[in-house]
Amino acid sequence: MKVSIYFYGVLKKLAGFSHIEVEVEDKISIKSLIKTIIRKVDKKEFTERFYDKDTEFIKPDIIVLINDRDINLLGRENTAIKDGDKVVFIPSIHGG
Q: What is the rounded average pLDDT of the residues 37-52?
């Protein structure tokens, strides 16, 4: 199945593109999709900003939307991905 991935903010810069489409197996979770994205982008700086090795998931300051719905309102890291889904990653920016 095919999934559309979009990056915004610094993630777009670190990935080197704003949009990719990936082929994944049926009934994949967002957590598994994250690992596929890391392999596809294959850039150390991107991975360091995007992925938390301790939780084996994205960094907590990144908002994830699937078809315009926050994964925190769905199944969090266990949210199922379906064919044709649009997955968006938006880093939140904090001033101080």
A: 95
The answer to whether 26 touches 61, Cβ cutoff 8 Å, is no
For the chain, domain boundaries? 2-91
> Which residues are bridge partners to 7 per DSSP?
89
pLDDT beyond 80 at 95: no
Map 28-43 to HEC letters: EEHHHHHHHHHHHHCC
Structure tokens at 1: 């199945």
Of 20, 17, 10, the closest CA to residue 91 belongs to: 10
- Span 2-91 CATH architecture: Roll (3.10)
